[in-house]
Known about the structure:
By secondary structure, this protein is an alpha/beta fold. It is about 45% helix and about 15% strand. The chain contains 22 helices and 16 strands. Mean pLDDT is about 85; it is low at about 1-5 and about 350-365.
Amino acid sequence: MSKNELKTIVALRGIGVSPGIVIGSVYVFNRQDVKETLYKLSDGESISREIERLKKALGKSEQELLDIKGGLKDREGIGPLLIDVHVMILNDKAFIENTIKNIGDHRVNAEWALKMTISKHREMFDKIEDDYLRERIRDVEYVGQIIQRNLSGKIHEKISDIREEVVIVAKDLSPADTVQMATRKIMGFATDMGGKTSHTAIVAKSIGIPAVVGLEKVTGEVNTGDTIIVDGTAGVVIINPDPEVVKRYEDKKRHYLVMEEDLLKDAHLPAVTVDGHSVGVGANIEFIEEIPSAVFHGANGIGLYRTEFIYINKEQLPSEEEHLSNYKKVIEGEGIKWATIRTFDLGGDKFISDAGLAKEMNPVMGLRAIRFCLQEIELFKVQLRAILRASVYGNVGILLPMISGVKEIVDARNIIDEIKEELISGGIPINKDIKIGIMIEVPSAVIIADQLAERVDFFSIGTNDLIQYALAIDRVNERVTYLYEPLHPAILRMIKQVVDAGHNAGIKVAMCGEMAGDPLCTPILLGLKLDGLSMTPLAIPRVKNIIRNSTVGESEKLLKEVMAFSTASEIKEYVKDYMTKKFSEFCPVNW
């Protein structure tokens, strides 16, 4: 009897953040992060000594990060950028000054003072509802862990110490840990913690290794040397599989690799249905460094450039020139024919680097996005001026988030018109006919979509928030996430209402939420006659293949059939059956 046959097979389900299948030997990466202890300081000399200890640990931590960056093969990818972000946090004046102040004011040791600083940051981030932005506290915590380890003086385990081909299992991994995997023999990883929007997940996608996060208890189920299967496509991890399960997954892996190769081969073909309906397919990006991946996977444009990262973790607010530099790089990116730049979807609580902008922490339905912009008009103008100046470098549109009524569009357009006049009179070239669109992500916008369509050039449906608001679901509350259903009858009716209103007004309607990149939803979206879909780059080849092998006629028939159902589960099962029969070769997805 083999070693694995003596062990209990364990199957866990988490969040697949980087697709693919890997079968290998486990390496339990257990860094044993330092537990902070509190001790009081008795005099000024002790305080000075602790401040000096902190400064030495900061310097050592920065060097550690720079060494990791220097060892990377690809110095221009997303990994080095995230190392730079961590260095930026490490050198943040407010971060350092607050910690030093904690040492002096509370007469505590450096470890405890640092813990106090990070706790304060966590309080701020916990009140941010946006998944992506709230997840940025992990970057601050990762930096804190590095400093704490260097304060302790203890030698700790590093990814760079691993020499054999393994699958890493860990409680959590930092982006700095993950970027090192590209230069090692790490085949994949699985973690207890983490989410889709973590930087660790983004890095895993960029280096192309299968990964599943949010497993909660995987570290308690494995030992180094165990056999593990990580299915990053389905979000499944199997520990100590029997030979039959291994064989099945080896077959799945071969099928996946062949399918991916076939999909990529045709990824640059246009997304046109058999009966001639063309769909614009773009990529959603946060970072300029994601553009090569977007183009490689078949995007010829950027359907959604989220600009929030330009603001996050900055000691000072970004200047107009910084904005312009970013937008030019997006617009002029090799292979990019068009780009849609969303104005910042932030509230005063999210300007972590400049808390003076707003003392009050606002929830998801508070002062954020267009509402914040229309109160902080000078801040808004800086970004708009940069977008308008960048408009002469290519085909670019402005996308306004969280529009809930006509007045917000009128006010925003008045500001844009004012800036246009200022730039033109100043002799600065711009595209005077730049397209201005809005995000449809609030139920009120759906209800008055016909009125909104008369005042803009295009719609982009943000399904993530629209579903959350329409179904009254907190997407991050695991007790109700089962209710988050893109194929809910109410959601399909809302999308249809928006598309009809847009087309009746002669404007195009796109979608940029997660639903746009879900192959299960593709034929439904074709039936709804959306003009464009924007998604994570990895989803593009599959979605385009489904589009090219569909007809609008068939999709409209499917839509009519599912609209007769009254529950999301009925619709989902019906569509699953349709997809399995018609598109199984393109969608080997664990429905």
